[in-house]
Amino acid sequence: MKKSVLFAAAALVSMSAAAQRAMAPQAPQPKYVFTTVDSVAITPVKNQGNAGTCWCYSGMGFLESELLRTKNKAFDLSEMYVVFKTYEDRAEKAVRTSGDVSFSQGGSLWDVTYAIDHFGLVPDVEMPAGKMYGKTLSAHSELTAIGDPIVAAAAKLRSLQVGADGEQLWKKAFRAVHEVYLGKCPETFTFEGKQYTPMSFKDYLGLKGSDYVNLTSFMHEPYSTGENLGKTFAIEVQDNWRWGQSINMELDDFCKIFEAAIKAGYTIHWASDVSETGFSRQGVVTYNDEAVVESTVSSDQIRLIGADAAAAPKFDPNKEVLPQPQKVVTPEERQAMYDGKTTTDDHGMLIFGITKDQWGNKYFMVKNSWGDASGKYHGIYYVTPEFIRAKTMNIVVNKAAVPADLAAKYGIATAAPAKKGKK
Question: What is the mean predicted confidence (pLDDT) over 34-44?
Answer without folding.
Answer: 97
